[in-house]
Amino acid sequence: MSSLLLGTRNRGKVIEIVSILADSGWSFSSLAEFPNVGEAAENFVTFAENAIAKAQFYASATGLCALADDSGLEVEALNDAPGVFSARYAGAHASDADRRALLLSELAKTGATNRHARFVAVVAIATPNGDILNLSEGICNGTITFAARGTGGFGYDPLFIPDGYDQTFAELPDTIKNQISHRARALQGTRTFLSQLDHPLPSP
Q1: I need a surface site. Which of 42, 67, 102, 108 has the fewest CB within 10 A?
Q2: 63 pLDDT tier (thresholds 50, 70, 90)
Q3: What's the CA gap between 122 and 50, in Å, rounded?
Q4: Nearest by Cα to 12 from 178, 130, 192, 197
Q5: pTM of the shown model
Q6: What is the distance between the alpha carbons of residues 96 and 86, in angstroms, rounded to a whole number?
Q7: At what angle do helices 182-196 and 11-20 cross, to 10 degrees?
Q8: Which residue has better confidence, 160 or 23?
Q9: CA–CA–CA angle 14, 18, 21 (5° rounding)
């Protein structure tokens, strides 16, 4: 069975990615197995650039082909903030709850009735020598609630109601979220790439 390194220390992301790609015929390792590897910089202005940078960094640091994603929430009334800064929106050491509280506060300050938002995810696969083998994007449109709802998921999930549903990502069962989310849609492209690959990925 071929293996990919998942370039994230976010346990929620690892669980979600493994669940979505569970029957792909691939096995996955995580950065938990590489405690001495540092954190990849996320200094770019697009999700694609950050995903590529992270995949290349972790592939180079471990000698394994790496899958990495960059994702975030774009709120229309906040001029698409927090965007690529979603994970750092309330500061480097803020909690998910801190980020959610800040987002609701900033949205309330605008006085806008427009609550439209979208989640965006880009997934990249890189080889240890820096080649990008695949890049996939997924988008999920929805609206922002007035208060956090639900205990599932992570990040901004308790604030986001996907179009066509009445529940937030944090209230929806994982079986539904992992079909319609931005990350799920990006990983569908990843799954297609992996299933069509007719040769093993480079290994150390």
Answers
A1: 108
A2: very high
A3: 9
A4: 178
A5: 0.91
A6: 10
A7: 50
A8: 160
A9: 140
φ/ψ of 79, rounded to 5, equals 55, 40
**Helix/strand/coil for 127:** coil
CA dihedral of 57, 126, 122, 100, whole degrees rounded to 10: -30
Specify which residues 72 forms β-bridges with. Answer: 120
Contact 109, 136 (CB under 8 A): no
pLDDT for position 194: 87
Distance CA 26, CA 24 (A): 5
Which residues are the active-site residues? Answer: 70
Identify the bridge partners of residue 70 per DSSP, sorted by sequence position: 122
Residue among 11, 21, 15 at smallest CA distance from 3: 21
For residue 39, give every residue at least 6 positions away whose Cβ sits within 8 Å of its Cβ, in sequence order, or none. Answer: 9
Check: CB of residue 160 under 8 Å from CB of residue 144: yes
Q: Which long-range contacts (CB under 8 A, 24 or more apart) does 129-134 make?
A: 129/60, 129/202, 130/56, 130/59, 130/60, 132/52, 132/55, 132/56, 133/65, 133/193, 133/201, 134/189, 134/190, 134/193
Where residue 1 falls among pLDDT bands split at 50, 70, 90? Answer: low
